[in-house]
Design a protein that fits this description.
Layout (H helix, E strand, L loop, with lengths): L1 H14 L12 H4 L1 E12 L2 E5 L6 E7 L4 E8 L2 E12 L2 E6 L2 E10 L2 E5 L9 E2 L2 E12 L1
Antiparallel strand pairs: 1-2, 1-3, 1-10, 3-4, 4-5, 5-6, 6-7, 7-8, 8-10, 9-10
Length: 143
Amino acid sequence: MKRLILLLMLLSILTSCKKDDSNPVTADSGLIGTWVLTSVSGSTSQGPVTITPAQANMSMTIVFNSNKTCELTVVTNGQPTNETDTWSTSNGKVTFNSNGTSYVLPYTLTGSKADIDFSSLITSINSTGGVTVTSLIFEFTKQ
């Protein structure tokens, strides 16, 4: 379990930056605001896992601004990382542009919850400490 938590923390740092119901919202305007990470879910070689940010000893906040910039704050083991990126959405995917690198991630909005699927970013980190992660969903709650 500690290895999985370490992998999830590592992925959140490397990426710098989750449940649907019958009426997901996908418009850009639905993302505008402050979002706080409330849970991390994944499928692993040992089965499904859902943990809180506190269990992973981390926190993450994304502020989506109407001018298409976003501020990302990640605190891992008490060490904060801050960055400002640009963002856009299209066809149920949010694109983060960070220092010349683009990350395109599927997302869903349902009320005050946003699920962002980070699974595509874990293909290069297939196994860590004997635990293979095959999906990774970060759930955020709008403040």
